[in-house]
Amino acid sequence: MYSKLLVPLDGSSTAEVVLPHVELLAHAFDSEVILFRAIAHPQGVTDDMGRQIISVDAAIDSALAQANTYLGEVAERLRAKGVKWISQEVQIGSPAELIIDYAKDAGVRIIAMATHGRSGISRWVYGSVAERVLRHATTPVLLVRAVGA
User: Fold this and answer.
1) Contact 148, 45 (CB under 8 A)
2) 4-145 is a CATH 3.20.20.110 domain
3) Tell me: the pLDDT tens digits for 67-79?
C-alpha cells in the first residue's frame, strides 16, 4: 500500500520528528524511503562595496553539498534501524511546489512530514509548507506535529 514514502526534511530536529513514523511504515510495508530536501534559490554574497565574494554557482554548490551530506546522515540512521530501501533527492526551488511535483512525478504513495505548528503572525509571515502540501498534493499526506508546537 505504501510502497514509496517521500520524507521532506529541512535540516531541523523539528522536521525529524516524522522519522520514527517513517521507520514504522517502512518496516510494515517494506517501503522505499525517499529523503527529500528542497533548497530555496541560493544567492551570491557581496561585500559592502557590492563586489561579489561568493558567486551564485558557488552558493548553489555549497547548499547542494550540505543538503546531500545531511540526507546521507539521516539515511545512515534509518539504515541502522533496519530500513532497507533509502534514496535521497535534493532540488532547488519553492519547497511546497517541489514536494508536490516530485511526489506526483515519482509515483510516491504517501508524503510523510512534520509540521512546525506555527500559528498567528508567524504562520502568516513564514507560511506553512506542510499546509500547502496538504491542500494541493494529490498524494496522501501524513502530518506529524512536533512536540511543543
Assistant:
1) no
2) no
3) 999 999 999 999 9
